Amino acid sequence: MEKQPLPEKVRAHVFITGTVHGVGYRLATWDKANQWGIGGWVEEIPDGRVEAVFEGNKELVEAIIRWCYRGSPDAVVKTVTVEYEELEGLKDFIIRRPSELSIKNEPKDIKVKTINILLFVHGVIPHNSNFSETKLYDLFWEPVKKQHKLSERIDDIISVNWGHYLTDTEEARLDERLSKAEEFMAQQLNLRAKLPSITNSSLQPWWRSLLHPLQNLVWTQGIGAAIYYSGIEGKIALQLAAYYQILEFLEKYRHQIERIISKKETTIKIRLHAISNGLGTSIVNDFLHGLFSPENDPEQAKEPTIANSQILAEEKRETVERYLFWRVAAQKKHLELGSIVSMASQLPLLLLSSQRVINTFANQETLSIDEIGIPEQTKEIIWKVFYGIDDISAFPISPLFGNHPAIEDITIELSNNYHNYLSYWDNQVIHTHAAELLNRRVVS
């Protein structure tokens, strides 16, 4: 009788992307591989993917690779990438965890390379303004970068825009209608009209003459945008717009972090320095809180429900995946906070939209500073907060964090037109303080 040839054996190294963490994907893979007598292992990796190795009969290995596109019942698989490698002779199939990895021949005393990135997030820019966010950022950065050789020490700049650009794209972002809506409301309410004449005005209360100017002032301070952000739909729209831009920019550094994210030693890290104004400060605070807080915060718009739009749904999917990757990077110290400069912050008001914060304050407790990336034990100033002494919509922040020494609240004198949104960006006192802060916090 002619001897039958032995079945060909192969080793496949597989990466699966999609919703594959926390949905029983590893257990289902382990069960299927053991049913079919396939050796190897499966593991969740920090960037949200599942990694697996299958060794065995070629037909069975190819069959389990096809099965990987389906996976466990709750999984949503996006891609399956396969590379064939030399056999190692694996017989058993196990669920592998990161602690089981042995990292060999790692050099000691590795020098850490730090990439310093400056993040700009503006506040409200009126719809009828001739100033773009780029001009605002230039007003700030041009005088600051000349000090302490900062232009040579900042590696990259992220310039975020939100709320006021109706771009010529297939579909506008959700947030891009905001400034037009506010302008229309101002016109309809006629807030800029003169106070109507009142019969026997001398008998009217003295405060009535202040009411109309205060209404105008409140409107120009961007309170409408703050209210929009306090709602679920508004927070989703603005966070999706800002987060998408930040994370898309960081993609060019991701491959460098991916190579080392599972290792104990850190050879490269991103240090983020945030400059923000008005509502932009709340956006930055929420972004940092989602990255650095010890536990996942359900209030962060990581999985928002958005308008029925394929374009926006794709942006959301990319943003969620990238956000979760950089959260892992932050937890593993590959992403860190360098410094924060906040101007005209409405943060104390907007924190009241958070049940987490309400519960904290109701218990007579203050917020924990390490939840936004500032080490609790630090004594060095990392966050400088500027607010005009006459600005009715800007507040100090330090008391909400227990007057922590890492936060410094600074009152400043603004120009005569103190409610003008340009005043903070073009303020020399702020420039000097910001340059000094960056000089201390930018490290190589």
UniProtKB/TrEMBL annotation:
The EC number of this protein is 3.6.1.7
UniProt xrefs under SUPFAM superfamilies: Acylphosphatase/BLUF domain-like
A GO term for molecular function: acylphosphatase activity
Domain of life per record: Bacteria
Hydrolase found in the keyword field: yes
Keyword line? Hydrolase
Where does the Acylphosphatase-like domain lie?
A: 11-97
InterPro entries attached here?
Answer: Acylphosphatase, Acylphosphatase-like_dom, Acylphosphatase-like_dom_sf
Under the heading Gene3D superfamilies, the entry gives: 3.30.70.100
So what does this thing catalyse?
an acyl phosphate + H2O = a carboxylate + phosphate + H(+)
Q: Which Pfam families match?
A: Acylphosphatase (PF00708)
Per its UniProt record, what PANTHER family does this chain match? ACYLPHOSPHATASE (PTHR47268:SF4)
Family of the protein in this entry: Belongs to the acylphosphatase family.
Task: Supply the name of the protein.
Answer: Acylphosphatase
